[in-house]
Amino acid sequence: MRDRILKAATHLFAKQGFDGTSLSEIASAVEIKKPSLLYHFRSKAELRVAVLASMLDHFKAVLPELLAAAASQEQLASVLRALVGFFRADRDRARLLLREALDRPEELRGLVHEHVTPWVRMVEERIRQGQADGSIHAHADPAAYCVHAIQLVVGGLASADSLGVLLDDDPEAAEARLTEELLRMLHRGLYRPGAEGERPPGGE
After folding, report:
1. CATH code for residues 57-188
2. What CATH number should be reported for the domain whose range is 2-50?
3. What is the pLDDT of residues 22-65, one digit of tens each?
C-alpha cells in the first residue's frame, strides 16, 4: 500500500503540483480513505518528502551493482542507460523533479545534496579514471558533466510529450529517437574519438 500511495502521489504531484493536490485525491486514487493514507504518512508534506526521497535514493542501491557488473569501459555507458531508463519508465518522475526544481528550489536542493551526492561522487571517480587512462576527454569537468547529464535527462524526458511533436513522428517513435540521441550526446561528450568504450550506449 505504501508503494501504491507513493506512485499515485508522484503522478498527481507531477500533474497538478504539490499545492494543487489534496490528500483526499491521492487516497481516492489508491481506493482508500484519507485516514488510512494518514496511517502511512502523517501529512502531505511528509508524503512529498517520501516521494522525492524514494526517487532520489534509487541509484544509491543500484549504482554500485551497475559499476561492479560492467567491464571498466562499459561502466559509464551502463550508468547512462540506467539513468535514462529510470526516468523513461515513468516520466512522472522527471516531470515532478522539474516542477519541484522550479517551485521549491531550496527544499529540493537539500534533498538532492543528501540523496544524490554519494552516487554522483562515484560516477565522478569513474570519469577521472577514464581521464587518467586517456579514454575520456582530459578537459571534461566530472562534477559539471554529472549535473548536466541529470539536467538533460530530466528536462528532456519531462518535455518529450510537448517537444517531441517537432520530430513529425508518432509519440512512441519520437520518444525512442529522442532517447537514442540523448544517450549519444551524453556518451560523445565524454569519450575521445577512437577511445575504447567510446561507442554510444545502445548503438551499433
Report:
1. 1.10.357
2. 1.10.10.60
3. 999 999 999 999 999 999 999 999 999 999 999 888 887 788 88
